[in-house]
Write the structure tokens for this entry.
Amino acid sequence: MTKSLFDSLAESKSFENSEHDRDFLYMESLSDNDPARVFLESLYDRFSKLDLIEPNFLAELRRQFHSRFWEMYLACALADHGHKLETLTNRKDRRKGEEGIDLKVLTASGTVWIEAVAPKSGEVGNPDSAHVPESPTVHDLAELPNGEEISSCCVRSDSIVFRMTRAIQQKVKQQNSKIKEGHVSPNDPFIIAINGYDIQGTGSAIPPSEIESTLFGIGNQSGSYNKHTKSIENQKYRAQPKRYKTKIDSTSGRKLNGSPVDSNLFATETHGQISAVIYSRANVWNCPELLGSDFVLLRNTFAKNPIEKDFLKCGSVVTYIDGVREQDYYLK
């Protein structure tokens, strides 16, 4: 019988001198029958039975609670929808305790690799940390000349796109290193599963989402303010294939544009080694009853190793064809 997560933590000594994640400390303080804690325990039990727990998993759970939760949720959701996940015991690339790509999915046509990542907002005070911009007030709008163009202060800010782009680029580097080591074939599809919950300002219900802005170069929404009707007209999304890191002028303290960062990763062949991205904002306190029904699959039309549209067998698929957005939902 698998030990419970918190019983296993109580016996582990690997975290005694490590920093404790605030979310984990809160979870630890909850009663055993709290719904969130019950859900977490059930995920851990299933994750353990899938033989996917690494030696340092418990220590990492305390330090990076949401990231480790995302790994468990992702694996259990995929298993629920019929995907066969290779166990750690059977993975040659992990037998010596080496780090590797998180999930190896076995399909009829070969191996698909999936790497999970849950980027954070960044340190407070860092000019490139993600933040929620202030929306213009009614008073601010009243001061605008009639017909003045304004840009929405929505979640698709440069800082959010930058943090997602950096997370993707780090995972691509990891894949490249595993290819060089011979553990991963360059002909295997490679998917990056991103959870945006820990980035402040994500989660807009109005498309395109922050991940779509990152992959397809979609900028903030803009429009013109009609002073007579007090409404914003001619709203549209601007193309924004590049974003700029923020730098602070040492003399004036003003924020200036720094080096450019691509925000159209799926719009060219440059990132063709990425087959697709899975996006979710699931967290231990807010998950759908059917695991994986929240997943959004965004396929790279320039992928060297493409995957089928119905690969996930759950959630939805978002595609852009000639600039037109389409979203199809998987129905069993």
User: Anything to note?
Assistant: The longest strand covers residues 218-226. The two ends are 33 Å apart (CA to CA). Confidence is low (pLDDT under 50) at residues 133-139, 150-156, 246-250, 252-256. The chain has eight helices and 13 strands.
